[in-house]
Design a protein that fits this description.
Blueprint: H1 3-28, H2 34-40, H3 53-71, H4 75-94, H5 102-123, E1 132-137, E2 142-147
Antiparallel strand pairs: 1-2
Helix pairs in contact: 1-3, 1-5, 3-4
């Protein structure tokens, strides 16, 4: 399997797991016993940075849009993905007590594995040089992908090990 294909599959898997993780509380809530529902209500207790549903929905929407950009190897999408990951890291540290079901924990674990692989693959060869900056072609009015450093990647000498 080519690195590009693996990368795109990991990006899509990560986003699908994110969506699944986000929907679990609404899908499972009616099936949970009273004690479990009570335990889950402690999620966020003692938070220095309380979770806002509107911010969560905004980040989720941006995350889905970033998936499209990452699959097209957009440099801007890669940057926004990094910002989202830093945001989730900070909110995890300051978000207080974390209580989740086994299903949520498994989805979160798999999502974190995929996100780590996406980050590593996007900043290391051979995919690092594939990321482009999107520019508007004024003559046609269409978006045109440009190599990140302004050079044509086809003119570059191959990297060692390629």
């Amino acid at each position: 399997m080519k690195a590009e294909d693996l990368f795109q599959r990991l990006v899509i898997a990560s986003t699908a797991l994110f969506i699944g993780y986000s929907l679990v509380p609404w899908l499972l809530d009616s099936r949970l016993q009273g004690e479990v529902r009570d335990a889950l209500s402690w999620n966020g207790f003692g938070a220095k940075l309380p979770r806002s549903e509107s911010i969560w929905l905004f980040v989720a929407l941006v995350r889905v849009l970033v998936t499209v950009g990452l699959c097209q190897f957009s440099r801007e999408a890669r940057g926004v993905f990094v910002v989202i990951e830093v945001y989730f890291g900070v909110t995890s540290l300051l978000g207080g007590l974390a209580v989740s079901t086994a299903t949520e924990s498994v989805l979160l674990y798999l999502m974190n594995l995929c996100e780590g692989a996406v980050l590593v693959m996007s900043f290391t060869p051979p995919l690092r040089d594939k990321f482009t900056t999107m520019r508007l072609d004024e003559s046609s009015g269409e978006l045109d992908a440009q190599p990140t450093d302004g050079q044509n990647t086809a003119d570059r000498p191959p990297e060692r090990g390629s």
